[in-house]
Structure to design on (445 residues):
């Protein structure tokens, strides 16, 4: 029997039992009991430590060549996740060019509403008028086929500090609107996801301390690299974010525990050290266990694109084993080594897309990072196997990114920069890669 068929059958067999209520149900299956859960101290919600991030649903081409979500694959993954105890699903109107919420709604609505928690966001990046923002909010109910949100976030606040926050949410009346929606029960928990600098985060903590804006939860980027080595002049170390939230007893949701997949595919030298210590565990499991070792963490999101990472994550979070102090120290050593590699800090979130000039920004960055991580990066003609590495990079690049969407088509319009949560200077990096490719072709390295 093919693995896909086996998963469908096994998932369907467990489906009825998997639809147990979200908290404290005595009829939970053994598979659910194996899943690690955390209790929200504010309201008693029993949340699976593994959350399903819906930003990276599997994609296919439709008959017109357009990228669309593979709904059949999504349904299969959601069924299997719920059957094995996952009950937190995080999406946004902005994910996958607006397709994520609808796919999540189709897949989740096939299960009892009390068997899962929905988290979505007010992603009003492009239009902050009250009319457009409230329409986005109301559309999310329709897309997700629900009449309430368990966890609702002000999406990616931080950049621009108080001025940007007031423009997006206060001056247009949205904060007051959302407070009324919460009082009416249509929002159970109101929080925010953060991207920015320390002084910007401090401002949102001051709002909480003063009672002006009480946060029920907060979503932060946290992993063993960003813990003390956050990349970019506008990003703050996760140890600081965690300490501030922990001090205020604010539940924490984790995003980017794998740094867009880079901590699942670390450079070979680093991977060898991990496998020597845990030969039966995946590289990715180290990153998830790091985040889960901190008690204030309520849920860790993983943007799983296929069954393989889902199966591995179910294995990691089943009978979860926190890291020891010595293992955390080991990961700090690995993080220090990671910083020595010239990787672009792209998490493949695709917020920069679509590029108005057609450049596949994340695809270009992902191919470049993959070559460095796998040790197949051609650096100079004196390098061993230079010709082989050169050919592999150029051929692989042409396969990964269509010629009309490659880095050399960037005109430095800068539209992408303001959308990047990692503060990457995208045009500069694209031009650097374009020059590298031309140097490869002309043998100028």
């Amino acid at each position: 029997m093919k693995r896909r068929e086996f998963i469908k059958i096994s998932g369907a067999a467990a489906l009825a039992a998997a639809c147990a209520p979200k908290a404290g149900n005595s009829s939970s299956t053994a598979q659910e009991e194996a899943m690690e859960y955390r209790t929200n101290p504010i309201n008693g919600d029993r949340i699976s430590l593994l959350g399903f991030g819906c930003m990276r649903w599997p994609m296919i081409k439709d008959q017109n060549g357009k990228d669309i979500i593979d709904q059949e694959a999504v349904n299969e993954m959601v069924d299997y996740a719920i059957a094995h105890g996952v009950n937190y699903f995080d999406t946004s109107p902005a994910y996958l060019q607006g397709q994520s919420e609808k796919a999540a709604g189709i897949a989740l609505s096939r299960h009892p509403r009390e068997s899962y928690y929905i988290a979505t966001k007010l992603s009003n990046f492009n239009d902050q008028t009250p009319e457009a923002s409230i329409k986005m909010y109301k559309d999310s109910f329709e897309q997700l086929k629900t009449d309430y949100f368990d966890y609702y976030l002000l999406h990616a606040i931080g950049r621009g500090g108080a001025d940007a926050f007031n423009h997006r949410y206060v001056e247009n009346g949205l904060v007051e609107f959302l407070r009324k929606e919460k009082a009416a029960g249509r929002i159970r928990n109101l929080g925010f996801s953060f991207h920015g600098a320390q002084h910007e985060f401090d401002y949102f903590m001051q709002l909480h301390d003063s009672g002006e804006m009480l946060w029920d939860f907060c979503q932060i980027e946290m992993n063993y690299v960003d813990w003390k080595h956050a990349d970019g002049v506008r990003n703050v170390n996760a140890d600081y974010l965690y300490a501030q939230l922990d001090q205020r007893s604010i539940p924490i949701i984790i995003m980017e525990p794998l740094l867009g997949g880079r901590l699942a595919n670390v450079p070979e030298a680093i991977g060898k050290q991990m496998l020597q210590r845990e030969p039966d565990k995946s590289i990715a499991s180290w990153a998830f266990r790091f985040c889960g070792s901190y008690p204030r963490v309520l849920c860790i999101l993983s943007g799983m694109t296929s069954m393989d990472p889902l199966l591995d994550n179910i294995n990691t979070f089943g009978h979860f084993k926190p890291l020891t102090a010595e293992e955390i120290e080991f990961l700090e050593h690995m993080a220090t080594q990671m910083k020595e590699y010239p990787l672009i800090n792209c998490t493949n979130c695709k917020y920069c897309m679509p590029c108005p000039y057609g450049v596949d920004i994340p695809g270009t960055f992902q191919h470049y990072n993959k070559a460095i991580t796998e040790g197949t990066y051609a650096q100079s003609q004196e390098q061993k196997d230079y010709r082989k590495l050169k050919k592999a990079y150029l051929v692989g690049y042409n396969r990964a990114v269509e010629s009309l969407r490659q880095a050399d088509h960037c005109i430095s319009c800068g539209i992408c920069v303001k959308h990047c949560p990692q503060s990457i200077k995208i045009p500069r990096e694209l031009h650097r890669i374009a020059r590298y490719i031309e140097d490869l072709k002309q043998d100028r390295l």
